[in-house]
Amino acid sequence: MAKKRKNEKFVISESQMISALMEHSTDSIYFKDLKSRFVLINKALAERLGIKDPNEAVGKTDFDFFSEEHAKQAYDDEQNIIKTGKPIVDIEEKETWHEKEDRWVSTIKMPFYAKKGKIVGTFGISRDITDRKKAEEKIVYLSFHDGLTGLYNRAYFDEELNRLDTERQLPITIVMGDLNGLKLINDVYGHSKGDMLLRNIANILKGSFRKEDITSRWGGDEFISILPKTSEKDARSIIKRIKALCEEKSTTEMPISISLGASTKKSSSKNIYDILKEAENKMYKSKIT
Hints:
By secondary structure, the protein is an alpha+beta fold. It has two domains: about 20-135, Beta-Lactamase (2-Layer Sandwich), CATH 3.30.450.20; about 145-289, Alpha-Beta Plaits (2-Layer Sandwich). It has helices at about 1-25, 45-50, 70-85, 130-145, 155-165, 180-190, 190-210, 230-250, 270-289; strands at about 30, 40, 90-95, 105-115, 120-130, 170-180, 215, 220-225, 260-265. The strands form two sheets. The chain has a five-stranded antiparallel β-sheet. A four-stranded antiparallel β-sheet has the order 7-8-6-9, with helices on both faces. Helix 7 (about 190-210) crosses helix 8.
């Protein structure tokens, strides 16, 4: 008799724990039937779905809340779980919504069994990891980009130069530039103005080169670009455009001027680093003339 009362007490405590989990957990918890319709969701998921009462979700599917692309992927995953009995553990998925910002979640989905061992639906828990994913993306971005100008950094340039140095990309042109007057701007107006000048020239370069070109900050006031499948003639047109934009964007307080040099690899027998050196020499020659 005492043992029975003990078991009853345990069952009640288990029920209370489940109730507390559904009410207070910050993770999204949900049960779905064999057709991937919501049977039960917790309060946290209701808030994410934009509904006040969790019961409002009963009978609805992901297609009622998420984008069609995300809802279809979720449906396919759940139907596969029902078919195979195999859970999906710790997957990271991007939730896309109809009218809300995309979110990232870490998800566990598993089959939900009736007492006799028959699968009657799915059960899932999702944890929002958007902040972590954004932090990871920022780390990746900064590892390949210059923090001040937003251009690629030298490490990324070196990787791309090796990757693009193939016969298929010929002719490959390298354009190298040295920003004029940066030291003077720093000395007269301060480094904040110098930083502004660097960002201005970076924006001009972004606007002048094509999407497939690789433009990097090479050093303090030096910039370099790889232009796959670009002839000398096309490179001269791009340089002319850069010069025109510099003149257009210049002010009395902040003149924008950059010395540029270009060299083109036309044959696979040429060493790409010799081409780079030629572009650099032409840049310095341009600077002193």
